[in-house]
Write a structure and sequence with these properties.
Blueprint (H helix, E strand, L loop, with lengths): L2 H13 L8 H36 L33 E4 L5 E4 L3
Antiparallel strand pairs: 1-2
Length: about 110
């Protein structure tokens, strides 16, 4: 490659290059925009966390303390001692009662 051709190629590359000067106003504006975005993201995270804590706190019930347990209602079905219940939950297996009597349950 000849020297004039090389010189022309280098001149053309130099003309298409971006400007190499940086203005301080542009740098400061970019820095301020980054700080604003960072602060907004931090504030959003704090507000989201506070909302989550408030929602969990309100959903606990009871007296509002996170360490208290809510009042539990007793079960609705109460079986008396010795009461006979005629129900088959599962079929095809053997059970032994308190008197050591084996029972074969069929599906029903």
């Amino acid at each position: 490659m000849s020297e004039p051709t090389l010189s022309q190629l280098l001149d053309r590359a130099a003309h298409h290059a971006p400007p190499m000067d940086l203005r301080s106003e542009d740098l400061l504006a970019a820095g301020r925009a980054r700080v604003r975005r960072r602060r907004a993201a931090g504030a959003g995270g704090v507000l989201g966390g506070a909302a989550l804590v408030a929602a969990v706190w309100a959903g606990l019930g009871g007296d509002g303390s996170p360490l208290s347990t809510p009042d539990l209602q007793p079960a609705t079905t109460v079986l008396e001692q010795g009461e006979v219940v005629d129900a088959a939950l599962f079929g095809g297996f053997n059970t032994i009662d308190d008197e050591q009597v084996a029972h074969v349950t069929t599906g029903g």
